[in-house]
Amino acid sequence: MTDALLIRNVRPSGGDLADILIRDGRIAAIGPSLAAPGIPTEDGGGALALPGLVEAHTHLDKSLWGMAWRPNDSGPRLIDKIDNERRLKREINIDPARQSARQVVLSVSHGSTHIRSHVDVDTDHGLWGIEGVMETRAAYADIVDIDIVAFPQSGLLRRPGTLDLMDRAMKAGADVVGGLDPCAIDRDPKGHLDAIFALAEKYGKPLDIHLHEPGEMGAFSFDLIFERTRALGMEGQVVVSHAFCLGTPDRDLVDPMIEQIAALDIGIMTTGPASRPAPPVKRLLDAGIRVCSGSDGIRDTWGPYGNADMLERVMLVGLRNNFRRDDEVELAFHVCTQGGADIMRLEGYGLNVGAKADLVIVAGETITHAAVARPPRRMVIKHGRVVARDGVCSRIAP
Amino acid sequence: MTDALLIRNVRPSGGDLADILIRDGRIAAIGPSLAAPGIPTEDGGGALALPGLVEAHTHLDKSLWGMAWRPNDSGPRLIDKIDNERRLKREINIDPARQSARQVVLSVSHGSTHIRSHVDVDTDHGLWGIEGVMETRAAYADIVDIDIVAFPQSGLLRRPGTLDLMDRAMKAGADVVGGLDPCAIDRDPKGHLDAIFALAEKYGKPLDIHLHEPGEMGAFSFDLIFERTRALGMEGQVVVSHAFCLGTPDRDLVDPMIEQIAALDIGIMTTGPASRPAPPVKRLLDAGIRVCSGSDGIRDTWGPYGNADMLERVMLVGLRNNFRRDDEVELAFHVCTQGGADIMRLEGYGLNVGAKADLVIVAGETITHAAVARPPRRMVIKHGRVVARDGVCSRIAP
User: Does a structural domain hold residue B130?
Assistant: First the structure.
């Protein structure tokens, strides 16, 4: 007997009632009234069946989830928040293994089946974060796939020793080389970008660069990124996260950037930030650009928001982009599912025969209805097995 | 025996454990271990006790809540949405009495104890909306207070006959005179504003004007509103809802407007819109301006979002204003509670002895924690009685 599961009475992506047959972790069949004698059966009760949600940008290592509430009184500048966080990590023991486990369990309870996490690498804490998240990745491999980005949160060149730690993080098994505001934080855009592109080349890994820089400054950094992507033949291997500068109202600045991003197959991550200029999701998708989303930091030293629910993120991306029609809200849903899979180059992702059986079963008349109502997920399926039920994950965290 | 209730073991506004004694619909005492023999008792289990949430801007008459899901495919312009809605009202029977009852029950389940609803008045539907919401107001008076704004959603002067209907709405018992984009929709700012200010004067009622107009156009309408407010001695009697133009980056345009708004004690309502320029909440509060918030339309023909949860609105206002520190998030909470009471001039609002016993009991370590976690409300108290428990309202809707 192979490892099999039959999910009866679901509506794949909001379509007609069907059953989904899973064998050996893959979708073996989708159709009405499938015959599958002797196979364990779950009843979907007419709920939607959706592909697993993709949390394509978060920071597993430093959520405060489950710790005592600590009023946030950090300073207003980006660098205040960075320094505040680095200090607090030891002071209140934000243990990356424990905290990433907590967020993983939360995330899976809401239906995320894949996570990309940026993980801090700095000279105060070395590889504490990377090792902690790798521990969680191994311990929870049955319920979620995790992609680790080595992330120089405190700057790369401004704190000597960080680049060497980044190299060690990649050697230790990080999947992606991270970067951060080459002008605004590192104050040496050429040095910063040369270093992270060289690291990506050395390990044959892709890049995912945090770029908060606004307007013309962000456009300049993008230009340097274009240059290196092209020169090194890294088309399709670079993601720029946040990319606030793409939300600049000046189309004469932004449109040529969008053209370059499309030509070099650079991916864009947006959280749908309400208080910042934001990349125009529909225009990017129309240009054929891969776009994903994520929760970013969840209840951390940066701010109190977030719950790791990527259906809530659909709502937030929709609100930020003024998506009102159902076909528009479905673009935000695309970004939180297939878009993330496209960015993370997930093999076998999707709700079709032959794909990996990573699914969410959730009540709703349509995808948009589910995104705005956000009821507890009836079931979450990972590797063909039920890993959460009625909003509760099958695994617990420390 | 008077009508009394003792709520034990709550933390008023996040402070130390206390009991709250309610008599005859008012808070009679707040303190540790109150003695109240023979009085019915509820255990708060250490949850927060907060003043009732104030939904200060919504549209009770036209939510689609509880109706079959209807994919939204309306056109992009404001006027497309207005016309689409007016047509659909009869076509799918968006009955104002039924739909307002549904939203009221939803709203109370989340802890709102006061609602201000704009209600459509137009020549296609006459006073259908006003009468429906008045029916709901009477039928649900035990669980919520409702303030009705007669609202010319389809324009006032561009559709002859509307002004007369507005007059009849005020005569029928509407509490507030509404207005809408005097330039952009009615295309006759002088005519529009003269008419609604005259109506307010005639009935001795305040004004609450929807103003979506951006930038300089909105500033011009504001200027005409200032002029009339001053000339008619209506200081403290005017609210401007949305006021997107206050989110214009140009401080030379906005700062003098803020000065005038403060000087004339004009109230401002903001939903914390993610896709629009938005009034800067902290700067308005710092200037001494009354600021409130609301859900605006909930799952209606304008868009699918919204759930009438004013704690979620705290989050959205916080996200829009980049409020990260707890003291900042508490400003958003203020806007969704006391700010609404200040705008609606509620008598006896607040969590203090002598105030009306309109309360929410909700789990959370602090106000900010409750706002970001948004658990089902443990209890909602209105007029001193429990009207919702564990997220379920004591009343049902048709």
Answer: yes
Chain A residues within an 8 Å CB radius of B88: none
**Boundary (domain end) residue, out of B329, B344, B359:** B344
Note the pLDDT of residue B75. Answer: 87
What burial letters (b/e) apply to A379-398, b meaning 16+ CB within 10 Å? bbbbbbbbbbbeeebbbebe
Provide the CATH number for the domain around residue A139: 3.20.20.140
Same domain, B171 and B309: yes
- Is the Cβ pair B325, A71 closer than 8 Å? yes
Distance CA A103, CA A60 (A): 6
Closest CA to A182 of A129, A149, A229, A219: A219
- Please tell me the number of Cα atoms within 13 Å of B287 on its side-chain side: 24
CATH number at residue B15: 2.30.40.10
Find out whether A115 and A146 touch, Cβ atoms under 8 Å.
Answer: yes
Q: Collect all residues of chain B within an 8 Å Cβ-Cβ radius of residue A318.
A: 305
Decide: B59 and B118 in contact? Cβ < 8 Å: yes
User: Do B367 and B277 sit in the same domain of this protein?
Assistant: no
Same-domain pairing of A322 and A186: yes
Q: From edge to edge, which strands make up the β-sheet containing A291-292?
A: A53-58, A112-120, A145-151, A176-180, A207-211, A238-242, A267-269, A291-292
CA distance B209 to B152: 10
pLDDT of A311-370, one tens digit each?
A: 999 999 999 999 999 999 999 999 999 999 999 999 999 999 999 999 999 999 999 999
Handedness of CA A98, A104, A105, A110 (dihedral sign): positive
Q: How many residues does chain A have?
A: 398
Q: A-chain residues within 8 Å CB-CB of B305?
A: 315, 318-319, 372
Q: Which chain A residues are Cβ-neighbours of B324 within 8 angstroms? A: 72, 74, 302-304
Q: What pLDDT digit, counting tens, does each position of A374-392 carry?
A: 999 999 999 999 999 999 9
Determine what percent of chain A is predicted with pLDDT higher than 90. Answer: 96
Disruptive mutation site among A13, A65, A70, A72 for chain B (greatest number of B CBs within 10 Å): A72
Helix (H, G, I), strand (E, B) or coil at B252: helix
In this predicted model, what pLDDT tens digit does every residue of A33-44 receive, in sequence order?
Answer: 998 899 999 999
Q: Which of B132, B115, B113 is nearest to B57 (CA)?
A: B115
Taking the Cβ of residue A279 and every Cβ of chain B, the question of whether any pair is shorter than 8 Å is answered with no
B189 and B121 in one domain?
A: yes
Q: What percent of chain A has pLDDT over 70?
A: 99
Domain count, chain B: 2
CA-based radius of gyration for chain B: 21
- Does some domain include residue A363? yes
Give tens-digit pLDDT for A126-174.
999 999 999 999 999 999 999 999 999 999 999 999 999 999 999 999 9
Q: What is the dihedral of CA B280, A268, A222, A214, to 10 degrees?
A: 0
What was the pLDDT predicted at B139?
Answer: 98
Sign of CA dihedral A78, A83, A85, A86: positive
Do B10 and B132 lie in one domain? The reply is no
Q: At what angle do helices B162-172 and B189-203 cross, to 10 degrees?
A: 20
* Cα A263 from Cα A258, distance rounded (Å): 9
The secondary structure of chain B in percent helix, strand, coil, rounded to multiples of 5, reads 35, 25, 40
List helix spans (H) across chain A.
78-91, 96-109, 128-139, 162-172, 189-203, 215-231, 251-263, 281-286, 310-320, 326-335, 338-344, 367-373
**Helix, strand or coil for residue B343?**
helix
Same structural domain, A374 and A270: no
Closest CB from A69, A305, A324 relative to B319: A305
For chain B, say whether A318 makes contact (Cβ under 8 Å): yes
Is residue B174 located within the same domain as residue B199?
yes
List the helix and strand counts (H, then E) for chain B.
12, 16
Q: Could you tell me the residue range of the domain that residue B131 belongs to?
A: 53-344
* Furthest C-alpha separation in chain B: 65
